[in-house]
Design a protein that fits this description.
This protein is mainly beta. It folds into 2 domains: about 5-125, Carboxypeptidase-like, regulatory domain (Immunoglobulin-like, Sandwich); about 135-249. It has helices spanning about 5-15, 125, 130-135; strands at about 30, 45-55, 65-70, 70-75, 80-85, 90-95, 100-110, 115-120, 140-150, 160-165, 170-175, 180, 195-200, 205-210, 220-225, 225-230, 240-249. Mean pLDDT is about 85; it is low at about 1-25 and about 30-35.
């Protein structure tokens, strides 16, 4: 895509690594075990597959390391990976690659083979725009992007207010037109992410809650499309983004 278009979208992507499919930044679902890569013969494990791509170019990222629990895999020339994860056991997915922003996913659980789809990661040179898009951004502290997802009888995530603790010096910005807004004070429908919380103490547990007059926050663990999401998400300082989904019902 033209460079000026890519730069205009970067703030949203650096913070969320989202906007690739539907209500999640990854497209996927339960699928049969892959026919290539390691063969799983251990009933204590299931197979997770997926592809890591460069957000700016949409090209495959070869040589990226994908870690899930105590298992890890390296992407091939097509950005694809295959790894085993422990069936029914929570794990944190981490994606890292030279010259890219590190991605920390919230805890998840798989009970069957699963195709996680495409996961984009952001080049480090674009990540420097964080300093210009978030007022008072401190790179020595942590960033958590939050995606609010409406499910079941909840028609929309609109008008949701996001609360978090601990607050301290942390700040929140809601997104509008794929950009952190200085005026919007609630979740806007269709935005990915819904909001970004920044200047969080690295490594400290964060509790995020939703307030919506029409819908209730779904408790964790929450299962959607073959994958179960846990409440926990780890944060780190530096060129790292954490990502958490929260659900309304």
């Amino acid at each position: 895509m033209p460079r000026f278009v890519a730069l205009s979208l970067v703030p949203a992507v650096v913070l969320s690594l989202a906007a690739c499919s539907g209500g999640d930044h990854q497209s996927g679902g339960t699928t049969p075990a892959p026919t290539t890569g390691p063969t799983n013969t251990d009933p204590a494990f299931v197979v997770q597959t997926g592809t890591i791509i460069d957000f700016d170019s949409n090209k495959a990222v070869a040589g990226a390391t994908v870690t899930a629990g105590d298992q890890s895999a390296t992407t091939d020339a097509k950005g694809a990976y295959t790894l085993k994860v422990r069936k029914g056991m929570p794990f944190d997915m981490i994606v890292s690659a030279p010259n890219y922003v590190k991605l920390l996913e919230q805890g998840t659980v798989l009970d069957a083979n699963y195709d996680r789809g495409k996961t984009p990661i952001v080049p480090l040179d674009l990540g420097t725009l964080l300093h210009d898009t978030l007022q008072g951004y401190d790179p020595s502290l942590a960033v958590l992007s939050v995606q609010v997802v409406a499910t079941g009888g909840c028609a929309s995530e609109a008008h949701t207010k996001i609360k978090f603790s601990p607050e301290g010096s942390a700040k929140i910005k809601y997104f509008l037109n794929k950009f952190p807004s200085n005026t919007v004070e609630e979740v806007q429908p269709g935005e990915l992410p819904s909001a970004v919380i920044y200047n969080l103490p690295p490594g400290m547990p964060v509790t995020v809650t939703l307030e919506n007059e029409s819908c209730k926050q779904a408790p964790f663990p929450f299962t959607q499309n073959g994958i179960t999401y846990e409440a926990n998400v780890k944060t780190e300082a530096g060129d790292v983004t954490a990502f958490q989904r929260l659900f309304l019902q």
